[in-house]
Design goal:
The chain is mostly helical and 161 residues long. It is 58% helix and 2% strand. It is built from six helices and two strands, in the order αααββααα. A two-stranded antiparallel ribbon has the order 1-2. Helix 1 packs across helix 3. The protein is globular and about 45 Å long.
């Protein structure tokens, strides 16, 4: 995705394109785009920074969870669990590092701990190895795609007064 006429590409526009590519299972285009964003862009490229795209994806994950399940009541939080197809629980330690990062970061934001979530985003932004950056971004995109596709019950009706 190149910027047109010198106008910069927003993190949301690129994140949306990457999410669409995941959904379309276009691995060639996805690999090209993720590789490009995982490398530090030239200042004049018009491409968003890696950490800004990753932040958009993580914010989208949280927004989808909250839109589907409703916000956690005051004093409560979501419990995120990863399950195998047989229903068995997967511990965070069993996940690849990038999957554990996505789980930990989403949990922080869903627990209304934005400082911990921002810390996790900063840790990912400091990762210098492009392959690790690409793995983290791709795992986050896969989680987002899954959440967008999964059938979840409508959120419970909340009485308003």
């Amino acid at each position: 995705m190149a910027s047109t006429a010198g106008s910069p590409i927003s993190p949301a526009a690129l994140g949306g394109r990457l999410t669409w590519l995941i959904g379309e299972r276009d691995s060639a285009a996805l690999a090209h785009e993720v590789s490009a964003v995982s490398l530090e862009p030239r200042p004049d490229s018009g491409r968003p920074r890696y950490e800004d795209v990753l932040a958009w994806v993580m914010e989208s994950i949280v927004e989808v969870v909250e839109a589907r399940l409703g916000a956690a009541p005051p004093g409560e939080t979501f419990l995120l669990e990863v399950r195998r197809t047989d229903g068995g629980a997967v511990t965070a330690a069993e996940l690849p590092a990038s999957g554990e990062w996505v789980l930990r970061t989403a949990a922080a934001f869903l627990a209304d701990d934005p400082a911990a979530g921002r810390h996790q985003l900063a840790v990912a932004a400091r990762q210098l190895e492009p392959l690790r950056r690409a793995e983290t971004l791709t795992d986050a995109l896969i989680w987002l795609d899954f959440l967008l596709d999964v059938d979840l019950p409508d959120p419970p009706d909340v009485p308003t007064r």
